Amino acid sequence: MNEKLDAIDRAILGILQKDAKTVAKSIAEQLGLTKTPVYERIKRLEQEGFIKNYVAILNKDKIAKSITVFSFVSLEAQKGAMMDDFFEQVKKYPEVVECFVVGGEFDFLLKVVVENLDAYYDFAKFKIASLPSIGGVKSAFVLNEVKNSTDFPLL
């Protein structure tokens, strides 16, 4: 953990990542502090980049039917330019909600959310597999989500 974070900072971050709408007064009450120092700490945590953004986490089941697919992608060769091109293309695809560079058998792990299997087939065929540097794509379809957390462990 960064040495700029003390126990109070971590406690504030823990509260905010559970509910970003928690106001400084409520955080102060929970921590046995006054509102002003808590507010100042939150501002510092924002300014120093510990808090990147505040977001609403949507209930996807109430919005639309969807499936989640993990796509394991390998490039023909791990050349810097090929990787950069892949990064730029993947950033343009709204279906890709997360992209990781990984070690091992594959080069990338994509978390893809689409409406149904037909939509995934179109995505895989016309977007990912059609990129010039793609060596292969394997897919794993999520059958049941056991845990989905946005909390970062504050050790």
TrEMBL record:
It comes from the Bacteria. It comes from Maribacter confluentis. This is Lrp/AsnC family transcriptional regulator. The keyword Endoplasmic reticulum does not apply. Residues 5-66 form the HTH asnC-type domain. Pfam families: AsnC_trans_reg, HTH_24. InterPro entries: ArsR-like_HTH, AsnC-type_HTH_dom, Dimeric_a/b-barrel, Tscrpt_reg_AsnC-like, Tscrpt_reg_AsnC/Lrp_C, WH-like_DNA-bd_sf, WH_DNA-bd_sf. Keywords: DNA-binding, Transcription, Transcription regulation.
